[in-house]
Amino acid sequence: MNILLVRAKPTFMDMIVGIPIGLVYIAPVAEKRGHHVEVLDLALEHTAEPVLKAKLAERKWHLVGLSCMTAEFEGAEIAARQIKALQPEIRIVFGGQHPTIVADEVMAKEYCDFVCMGEGEETFGELLDALSQPADLSQVRGLAYKDSQGRIFKNPPRPSIQNVDALDFPAYHLIQVDRYVEAESARYTPKYKRAIQIFTSRGCPWHCTYCHDLFGKTFRPRSAENVLAEMKLLYEKYQVQEFMIEDDIFNFDMDRSKKICDLIVDSGMKVGLQFGNGVRLERLDEELIRKLAAAGTHHMAIAIESASPRVQRLTKKNLKLHMVKDVVRLTNKYKINTLGFFMIGFPSETIEEIKMTIRFACQTDLDEALFSIVIPYHGTELSRQVLGSGYYDPNSSTDHLKEVVKIRTPEFDFETLRKLQRRAYLMFFLTRFRFVKMLPKLFSIRSSKKYLKAIERNFLPQALQGEASRVN
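Above: the chain's sequence. Below: its structure in token form.
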């Protein structure tokens, strides 16, 4: 078969483009089975539709795969409708976090033929085998599909992949790596120009109520040797000099994390590392921080979320807040820039607890902070809590396919949270001379666009923002 894997163009002005990592992970599954595979990333294109139309005209495509998270689904739907309008006979399979959560709703759409739920590699491979033979789709675990009468079926879930070392490295040869390193950084401003995202593990054993569950609650690490082999491939073949680690919890196994650092140092590679998806505070000690710095780490995000012990328990985050000061002191000692993740607006949270979080952030030695308004994404425990309690704006859509619910309680509504969010940023960057420290980044060609977008999103009225922006 001829298979086209597509990332749609985002409909939000501030979606940062990194490599389509889900697509390049499943591409080798098809290639090993002898299929012709191409990856089309419309997020890189100024105007997506003509590029998609031209690609579809190049050959007879049998299957198109679309992968997306919640914020990307609207764009994926637009692309799917365009594909079906141009070539109705092409079958379309959706995958990724959002289609997994709302598989029934996606399958009900005329443009969707299949959904791979959960981790996609094994399910996608068996789907290809079933379509090629053909065979009984009901035997493919983790698959949702329609029969010839249009009836929707959801097969039992597929267990998580335990031996993640057995997975092929992503199909970097199917993407134009140069276009990604030239694009605006997907995470923190890189130390080296040629930066790319990688995963070194899957799964997280914590049960935070606001988090998705795509990779499950079992930590499944790649071996340190396997991680180094991928880094060396990218370093030597594609001249990648910086790795943006996207793991849910890279440092859960501290010994493995330290070994990865040691192997990088021993390899002689001069690289940068950054952890923009957050590391777990309690799984950091001075030895690990020292080794991370020696391996090239210059930035890490620490997910703190709330300074209220009650909210920590409510969200099941259960962070040891007293450790923040010591950990940030150590990152400063080893010259690692730190970004604190904070969330405001949990159901039952009080205004005073939100202000407590803002004060806490200001009193730390964190270099930067991200204050996000809580969004109860469908499929999370938080979403069930919000809908069950009625703590949401009745005027906000409950169409989980494309919209997100805005939390509203007797204490606050969305506009109140926006005002508190702006207050948080002003207080944070006006304390401890942080604004002065930020000035070089605002005037840097490499980083100014990202920070100016953040200023636009948080301080300009919605009517002046032009294109759509993220809700939080």
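DSSP finds 17 helices and 15 strands in the chain.
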